[in-house]
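From the methods appendix. Each design record in this collection lists the tokenized structure first, followed by the designed amino acid sequence. Records were kept in a plain field format so they could be parsed without special tools. The example shown here is representative of the layout used throughout.

RECORD:
FOLD TOKENS (67 positions):
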């Protein structure tokens, strides 16, 4: 399976979200800056990422139903 580089600019995403929602922007300013996680620089397999997201969603649903 081919691996792909991540084209995700966390600062651009942060700027966009702050422009779109003033309340969210206030909360984000309160949290302070956060740089990209070092693991995000590694290439990834999109199929693996999708499968992982589906498994985590299943765990989340099970956990929510037990409360």
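DESIGN:
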């Amino acid at each position: 399976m081919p691996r792909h580089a991540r084209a995700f600019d966390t600062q651009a995403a942060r700027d966009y979200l702050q422009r779109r929602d003033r309340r969210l922007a206030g909360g984000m300013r309160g949290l302070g800056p956060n740089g990209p996680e070092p693991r995000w620089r590694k290439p990834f397999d999109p199929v693996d990422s999708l499968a992982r997201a589906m498994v985590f969603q299943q765990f989340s649903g099970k956990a929510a139903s037990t409360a």
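APPENDIX NOTE: The two ends are 39 Å apart (CA to CA).
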